[in-house]
Design brief:
Elements lengths: L12 H13 L4 H16 L2 H25 L2 E8 L2 E7 L5 H14 L4 H6 L7 E2 L2 H13 L4 E8 L4 E6 L2 E6 H11 L7 H11 L18 H4 L9
Parallel strand pairs: 1-4
Antiparallel strand pairs: 1-2, 2-3, 4-5, 5-6
Length: 234
């Protein structure tokens, strides 16, 4: 995008001090008044067609900047089941199953009380509530654009199960097994991130569940489970 340019104006300090005092009493400043004068000069002296061309150019630059910002954003979606109720959240950054596992280990070891409250005061405190429909859209987009929707998780605090989904379908594990697996994954220090993930998944081998409402990849494909996706509004 185009930048703003700083203008240097020289003015005698006693006069500037006196002028500033008067303008402060009027609820404004020298800088604000000068900006107003510049804008008046621009609108009075620059031809109308040139102003329109500049406005069009600035609008285009702003739209391109917004599009680039949105393209760079990553999302993680959560369904939280507790006391028989479901709540849905969106987090505007990347989180993976390792981070979920670290949270669950702390949660289970410290007996932190309600799961949603613990989530909202943890590293996931930036979660924003979304509707069930928005969550379903994020879930569908997880398969279409995994670089955009980097994780979808279902945390069932009633059953003490955690689920995640990828191109192979849903995978569900007991929270306690996930906690134990992340403990063993990080017992060895100075590994690369992908090595921690590999060790974590190795420890979970054979622990996968077929949970009601989350049939695993062994039982049903994700394509059969999901309805045709629609683009979410974000």
């Amino acid at each position: 995008m185009s930048n703003y340019v700083q203008l240097d104006v020289w003015f005698q300090e006693y006069k500037l001090s006196a002028l500033s005092s008067v303008l402060v009493e009027q609820g404004t400043t020298v800088e604000k008044r000068m900006q107003g004068v510049l804008l008046d000069m621009y609108e009075a002296l620059v031809p109308r067609e040139t102003q329109e061309a500049i406005r069009t150019r600035l609008d285009k630059e702003e739209a391109e900047a917004r599009a680039a910002e949105e393209a760079a954003r990553k999302y993680t979606a959560f369904c939280v089941r507790e006391n028989g109720e479901r709540s849905f959240f969106q987090l505007d950054r990347t989180e993976d199953i390792l981070e979920i596992a670290k949270f669950l280990r702390r949660y289970l070891r410290e007996e932190q009380g309600p799961g949603i409250a613990a989530l909202q005061t943890s590293a996931f405190a930036g979660m924003e509530p979304v509707t069930a429909e928005q969550y379903d859209q994020l879930l569908a987009l997880r398969i279409e654009t995994p670089d955009k929707i980097t994780g979808v998780f279902d945390l069932d605090f009633d059953k003490r199960e955690v689920s995640t989904v990828d191109a192979d379908g849903w995978k569900t594990w007991p929270m306690q097994d996930v906690s134990t697996a992340v403990y063993h994954a990080y017992r060895k220090s100075y590994l690369r991130p992908e090595q921690y993930m590999s060790r974590f998944l190795e420890k979970l081998e054979g622990k996968e569940l077929t949970s009601a409402g989350h049939l695993s990849a062994r039982d049903i494909s994700f394509a059969e489970e999901m309805a045709p996706p629609t683009q979410p509004t974000m």
